[in-house]
Fold each of these.
Amino acid sequence: MRTRITELFGIEHPIIQGGMHFVGFAELAAAVSNAGGLGIITGLTQGTPEKLAAEIAKCHDLTDKPFGVNLTFLPAFSEPPYPEYIQAIAEGGVKIVETAGRSPEQHMPALKAAGIKVIHKCTSVRHSLKAERIGCDAVSVDGFECGGHPGEDDIPNMILLPRAAEALSIPFVASGGMADARSLVAALALGAEGMNMGTRFIATQEAPVHDNVKQALLNADENDTRLIMRPLRNTERVLNNAKVTELLAIEKEKGDTLQITDIIDQVAGVYPKVMLDGDMDAGAWSCGMVVGLIHDIPTVDELVRRIMAEAEGLIRARLTGFLDDEPAVARA
Ligand SMILES: Cc1cc2nc3c(=O)[nH]c(=O)nc-3n(C[C@H](O)[C@H](O)[C@H](O)COP(=O)(O)O)c2cc1C
């Protein structure tokens, strides 16, 4: 399939694996890129620019295809050394960066000087337009359904994607709630040039996370996510568990006076315990509503092949079929 996104990034299929804390290691990024999509290493997960450089080198050993690095600009107690991370990315020969959180404006000169294409993840049309204005090459439009940080506007992709299509000139992918061929074809119909998946890629053979995480995704459904940290305007969609229930009770009790320190036990240092140790109640971890559409743990290659084959079937048979004269019942 050819879209402006496959052309921009030099990939075979318009499927991107979004950066994910303690999931986006070289093994998963390389598997996605080898399957013809765009795999992404999560920069800050590596801990230091030197360790990111090593992870990039490992990914080059695992794939000859293009892959990217995610740089997340979220509120943090101490600002990570972003210029050094960008230097490691540039020196590692990576030509694609997914930015997220705050605007990447101040880092655009360095990224562009290194010949890097930037796809910025945005949860609103206004942020997408800003990304376009500051020179981003593409946008990942992240709807309210998404795992992670959906922003504060609460606009689902059924509205957000066509609004982005109305407003943007640069290409964009649909992010949030994407799981299968139906998601991809719907995203294309709504004006996107491909899709970005987070949660779905965790439930794959190659995702380097504890098996308990994959099983938790199989066991959960679309009613099992919760929004946390809304009073802090740092809303995050997470999978419900004992610690999340505890956290929500604290939020209710504190109301508008909530401080991050009130819920630090439920949110700090959680990811290695969940993703590496499989301690599913260690705290709050991101998960999308799309978890309701995850019913198996295929290899990344099987998943991507299935999506592309079924997407072709949907477009050629189901959709064009609606335009045929033959009645639908006769086709069934
Ligand atoms: C476990 C997990 C961790 C994530 N960590 C990050 C992150 O560190 N940086 C980031 O930009 N996005 C992060 N995301 C968001 C994803 O990149 C992607 O935008 C999101 O998962 C899309 O929604 P979906 O889960 O419905 O596919 C994370 C998502 C999940 C599920």
Amino acid sequence: MQPFISVPSLKNQSLKDLTTWRIGGYSTEVFFPATIEEIQRIVVHYRMLDRPLSVMGYGSNLLIDDRGFDGGIIVLKKNFCKHTLDHTDLLVLEAGFACPKLARLAWTMGFKNLAFLSGIPGSIGGAIQMNAGAHHHAIMDYVKKVEMIDTYGNIHLFDRSVIEASYRQTHFPIKGIVTRAWIALEQEGLLSLTEVLAHRSRTQPLAAWSCGSVFKNPHATISAGWLIEQVGLKGFVYNELEISVKHANFMLNTGNASSQDVLTLTRMIQQRVYLLTGYILQPEYQTLGSCF
Ligand SMILES: Cc1cc2nc3c(=O)[nH]c(=O)nc-3n(C[C@H](O)[C@H](O)[C@H](O)COP(=O)(O)OP(=O)(O)OC[C@H]3O[C@@H](n4cnc5c(N)ncnc54)[C@H](O)[C@@H]3O)c2cc1C
């Protein structure tokens, strides 16, 4: 199909293996661009075709419909992950760069502020879009500039001051794809990489297929996992989904769970938590949709 885009792509590709939940159907076409020019070419081409286009990093916060995605998907984790140093205290990272790799890179350079990212299995682009965080830090606390490509293929550079970020969400002045970020390196940091990773393996079922936390915490001092435990759902099994006994906010795919199973169990948890505690839980995971 479309040879003039000349960007490596796979047709009718299963998406489940591109996510950490291992759930989802097929996409018409999946692209693995290596340069900004290639991303621009895909965007412009899909706009000309008037076809849906989406973007993903590591698929670690994504629920993909079993019916698949009838459009193109740009996957940045494979080829779009270079980095450079800007002055001595600013890293410029392509959006597919992995968060744990960034934490390690910063640490070996003597900067401790990004250690909290070491246990977040996402890309820089996905982390910025989700304002990913842990241990009272979030990535947007350290982002200085973000480069994006809009729906027409134009490149924009946004200063942090024009980007809105709050708990697990970021809003940009335009719709589009995050392509690069400038992230500040600081010497101060409360936790070491070893402490962050040890805490994770003690408290989270890391070997299982999941999307991390299913729900956002409804309040700074009340965690969704604690509420799910209080209403007696820890360990609950629904088809091939299990509410983790290690961390009740993790919903594990133990075999062949479907996207519909996830939506059903999400609603069951929300209803029970609301009925018994009055708290409304909002899902943290995203469903794959057109980014334009
Ligand atoms: C075991 C485990 C532990 C986790 N722990 C944490 C945690 O401690 N804290 C936390 O915040 N999250 C956590 N997560 C969730 C997840 O890792 C983060 O939200 C991560 O930042 C998502 O990045 P990603 O590259 O996987 O994004 P994806 O899942 O691929 O995409 C997520 C969303 O971002 C969009 N997106 C992706 N890339 C771009 C881009 N370049 N430009 C624009 N939009 C983009 C996608 O379209 C989608 O809407 C965890 C997940 C797992 C599986």
